[in-house]
Design goal:
Strand order of the largest sheet: 1-10-12-11-13-16-14-15
Number of helices: 13
Largest sheet: 8 strands, mixed
Bound molecules: zinc ion
Length: 442
């Protein structure tokens, strides 16, 4: 599997950021028109496109399957939907935007008055020009979403309403990309694939995860990596129910969502709050160029809710740029291809790569000459100072020597010293090569 991912990773080098950002955006653009939901062919089409980028193991879980306290629902598929006025004009048209249909609407085809239709029409008066996104997964219903200004302008008329959908026994579909490393211990990345034409909330996470998987596969790694492409909530619950025994291997994890807009980064900590992933994310963001904010865990949001449920309590946080519910485009037709940007996608990918680099190289060492400082100059490990300071390289080596007592990892040392992990890691490599450090077994 590793080799086949490598074969596909021709354009995935993060060194060419503009090209990568554009390729990530092109994937978002290709996925945008598809009408996804928590089940159905929209998810399958999405995964089929992703398979051109990364190898996926696709699972189909039948309707009625019990997954913890939940049951896999009937599968929903839709071909067309519209509201026609008495002249036969499609005044609301699924072909124009799939957000026009309440996701999971049961089929209907009838003619009715405006008064009878109105309880099935949904709009948002605060954003009168936008189509809101609405779902009804677990309560049978049908409805249309439309701009509030259009709703207000509807004439008293007889309307033909049609939702050409099916709700029938079928499957819930999800996919995994597993990239084995030298250890069975895993880093988990998860994104949701259940939203229709919404870019930042949904497609940005899919694109970052897919390109990150290619990047991960481009060299051998210590950790194994698992990327989940799953419907929100029910998909995460399904995966966890079917892989409960495997979850003990998950040492670090991130849910990726809303990572394509130009806002600063927001990281929501895991339930533990002090897991390696929480400290790593904080370190990478602190030393990055972008504005950022760390938020503590709350039991609401994306699938970190399931990964961090008390029975699992996995070290899984959530990386976002703008936070769901706090940007005006959220769950509206304005979360479109103009709201996400190639450069923002590339920056999100780079941030994830930096996180991986820290996790891969964070180890514990022991100073083999702990009684006073070793003579670094004699070994060519003390660069002549420029100006007043002792220089970054020298300082990093002194920090590593001082704190490598078998109880501090390189990330601990980076945090304590305020220096970049990369500088601390390089210092440890230099000292180990010169016989001054050895890796401490833990
Ligand atoms: Zn959403």
């Amino acid at each position: 599997m590793l080799e086949s991912v490598r074969d596909l990773s021709d354009a995935s080098s993060v060194t060419d950021r503009d090209a990568v950002g554009q390729a990530m955006y092109d994937l978002v653009s290709e996925l945008f028109p598809i009408c996804r939901s928590i089940t159905g062919d929209g998810v399958r089409q999405t995964l089929a496109i992703l398979q051109r980028y990364i190898p996926l193991a696709i699972s189909e879980v039948p309707t009625g399957t019990q997954v913890f306290d939940w049951t896999i629902p009937q599968e929903w598929n839709i071909r067309d939907a519209y509201i026609k006025n008495s002249r036969g004009d499609r005044i609301v048209d699924f072909r124009h935007s799939n957000l026009h249909v309440v996701n999971y609407s049961e089929p209907i085809h009838t003619t009715m008055s405006l008064d009878d239709l109105k309880p099935h029409l949904f709009s948002n008066s605060d954003q009168p020009a936008l189509i809101p996104y609405r779902t009804s997964y677990y309560k049978r219903a049908w409805g249309f979403c439309l701009p509030h200004e259009q709703l207000l302008a509807l004439a008293d008329d007889q309307y033909e309403v049609c939702i050409d959908s099916t709700l029938a026994d079928g499957n819930l579909t999800y996919a995994e990309c597993f990239i084995p490393g030298s250890s069975e211990e895993e880093i988990l990345f998860s994104c949701h694939v259940c939203h229709p034409s919404l870019c930042n909330d949904n497609l940005s996470g899919i694109s970052v995860a897919a390109f990150l998987a290619r990047e991960v596969a481009s060299e051998s790694r210590r950790y194994s990596y698992r990327f989940l492409f799953i419907p929100g909530t029910i998909g995460a619950i399904t995966w966890l129910a079917r892989n409960q025994a495997l979850t003990s291997r998950v040492k670090h994890g991130l849910v990726l969502t809303c990572v394509g807009d130009v806002g600063g980064f927001h990281y929501k900590q895991s339930r533990r709050g002090n897991a390696s992933i929480d400290r790593t994310m904080a370190h990478v963001l602190r030393h990055g160029a972008m504005a950022h904010e760390i938020r503590s865990f709350s039991p609401y949001g994306y699938d970190e809710r399931q990964f961090c449920s008390p029975g699992f309590d996995l070290p899984v946080g959530c990386l976002m740029r703008s936070v769901w519910g706090e940007f005006p485009q959220y769950h509206t037709s304005a979360d479109d291809l103009t709201f996400v940007r190639p450069q923002a996608l590339a920056e999100s990918l780079r941030t994830c790569v930096e996180v991986i680099n820290v996790l891969e190289h964070d180890r514990m060492y022991r100073n083999l000459t702990p009684f006073c400082e070793p003579a670094l100059g004699r070994r060519g490990l003390y660069a002549p100072a420029e100006g007043h300071g002792i220089g970054n390289k020298n300082l990093a080596r002194l920090w590593v020597l001082n704190l490598s007592d078998g109880a501090h990892s390189l990330l601990d040392i980076a945090e304590r010293s305020g220096m970049r992990f990369g500088d601390i890691h390089e210092a440890a490599n230099d000292l180990a090569l010169n016989g001054l450090l050895e890796e401490a077994s833990h």
